[in-house]
Amino acid sequence: MSRRLYLVAYDVCQPRRLNRVYRYLSSYKVNGQKSVIEIWVTPAELKHIRLSLKEIMDKTEDRLHIIALDPRQPVSCHGQASHFQQTFFCIV
Questions:
Q1: In the β-sheet with 4-11, what is the strand arrangement from edge to edge?
Q2: Are 68 and 42 in contact (CB under 8 A)?
Q3: How confident is the model over 20-36, as pLDDT tens digits?
Q4: Residue 37 and residue 29: Cα distance in Å, rounded?
């Protein structure tokens, strides 16, 4: 299964839920900060992430955006920003 890079942005209203979402997504994070991160996942992992976040987040108050990043597009980073560029990835 091939992995794909996604940009995840979230806005969670309640601090306890916010911490749960942050801790959960940190296990998939390859780059980013606070509430906008990059994840590099398989389709099965992405499906699991969406289902898990539905349980954690409140759909009446919170927002979540998962955007597939096109690998053909050039990346423009400014300041201390960096872009995830690994062709091989292993979580131990």
A1: 29-33, 36-41, 4-11, 63-68
A2: no
A3: 999 999 888 887 778 89
A4: 6
> What domains lie within the chain, and their CATH numbers?
4-68 (3.30.70.240)
**For residues 45, 49, 51 and 53, what is the CA-based torsion angle, rounded to 10 degrees?**
180
Regions of the chain with pLDDT less than 70? 1, 72-92
CA distance 11 to 78: 23
Q: Which amino acid is at 33?
A: Q
**Location of structure tokens 């990346």:** 75
Nearest CA to 58 among 89, 7, 13? 13
At residue 9's C-alpha, the angle toward residues 87 and 85, to 5°, is 15
